[in-house]
Amino acid sequence: MRPTVVSAEVLFEEFRAKLKWEWVAGLGASERRFDEVAVRAARSGADLVGYLNYIHPYRVQVLGEREIAYLTSATPEDCERRISRITTLEPPVLVLADAQKVPPALQAMCEGANIPMFASPESSAYVIDVLRSYLSRHFADRASMHGVLMDILGLGVLITGESGLGKSELGLELISRGHGLVADDAVDLYRVNQDTIEGRCPELLRNLLECAASACSTSRPSSARPPYGARCASSSSCTWCGARRWSATTSASPTSRSRRTCWASRCARR
């Protein structure tokens, strides 16, 4: 499944600060959206945004210096014909880049056809790169899986298995060794392009890890990870040996014996 909707207003607010753009025409078309058929047919964000092209309809058309020169450097009749052809493309948004001035005829066309037009001082290539990246993620195919997703040395590792096998405990042990937790229990997977799958954590589960005692503890970012040996205080037994004689304190390092997490003689954590 993938979403098929993003409005002009959402797109404008998302990059208002980054692209420093202004809404210069078509203010009454804030709910104008991408064509759903075009979104479903698109293989990536590259199919949904690009330079002005009369062959590719239903996508964000970006007008840089050369495109504006093409639209304005001809006889008045040809200029009017070239600009009017843009309406047949049914673009969700027009973006004027390279700090170009808005041609009055183009602005009038957008107002008459209710096509939103944004003007940005950024280069057209940069605008296209930013929008393609955003649209690739927004319209990506997605699915949810049961498991624990970890960031291990910059590589995403998905731990799967049946409930109760100790996936979260393994994730907690990896956190204690300096690795990062991305998501526990439910992992959202996005196919952002043909050979890249991106894993994310659902908003409700962010920074949470389910422990053995069915309680949740907070997992902090890498700059504030718990010391080695940290354990959930609500757990009733040691996750290594199963003994119930253990404390929820933390040890300062793997070799420190000043603070112990388990008091069972057979446990490796003694």
Give an account of the 3D structure.
There is one protein chain. With 270 residues, the chain is of the alpha/beta class. 24% of the residues lie in helices and 22% in strands. It contains 7 helices and 11 strands. It has helices spanning 8-14, 36-41, 65-72, 76-85, 104-113, 124-138, 167-176, and strands spanning 22-25, 49-51, 60-63, 94-96, 117-119, 141-152, 155-159, 180-193, 196-200, 208-210, 216-218. Strands 1-5-4-3-2 form a 5-stranded mixed β-sheet. Strand 6 (141-152) and strand 7 (155-159) form a beta hairpin. The radius of gyration is 27 Å and the shape is elongated.
What tags apply to this protein structure?
four-stranded antiparallel β-sheet; five-stranded mixed β-sheet; 270 residues; alpha/beta; disordered C terminus
Q: Roughly how much helix do the residues carry, as a percent range?
A: 10-25%
The percentage of residues in β strands lies in 15-25%
The separation of the N and C termini measures: 49 Å
Order of helices and strands: HEHEEHHEHEHEEHEEEE
